[in-house]
Amino acid sequence: MTTKTDTDATLGESLKLKVKEKTAPVITITYPTASALIVNNKPVVKWKVTDNDSGVASATIGITIDSGSKVTGDAITKTAITGGYECTYTPASALADGSHSIKVDAFDNDGNAATQKSVTFKIDTVPPTLSVTAPTNGLVTNKSACTVTGTTNDVTSSPCTVTIKLNSGTAEAVTVNENGSFSKALTLVSGANTITVVSTDSAGKSTTVTRTVTLDTIAPVIMSVSITPNPVDCGKTYVISVEVTD
After folding, report:
1. pLDDT by residue (tens digit) across 96-113?
2. Please, what are the domains in the chain?
């Protein structure tokens, strides 16, 4: 009787039975998170691919941004970890403000495809618009009651929050209506007043508008009056001079 095993120099390889595993790799996207608002238009995308059986086929790791071409190879930085790779990718071109999607896929060394993972997020690099319609800058008034009104908006990251601060006081939150309008009543102090309005969008960017308003409740004082010449001949011109302080 003759016996051959997989250690035989001639027939050994043909006697080996190779069984492929059927467990697909696992993909986890760690950044950006779902519905994230990002102010950087070239965010570093981070994800992990692991397979504890045949291992991850690194060349098959790919990322697709929006409807662009899938990126593979050296454009993706792959750091070996137990059972797979931690990956990072920075877009070659800046992403436009608005919504974007990322799709990541990979295979293991036995050809099993990982379930494609995706995430949707927003890029927002533009601060909110802020218009303060009242009071006008440089206003001088004799009324201590002052109402600040305005509108704010951010196309990508609405709604916005608004705070209003009078002089060195505390910045107070103001209700912003659905149409972006807001108002707040203030009580001015005598002299120069500084009103600081700040609008902040959901991505954390802000716009500031400052108004200076002077409260003057003291009437001017007439210090002296003179007529020149005095007396004056009938039909002649004379000048009345008044000295006023305020």
Report:
1. 999 999 999 999 999 999
2. 21-123 (2.60.40.10), 129-215 (2.60.40.10)
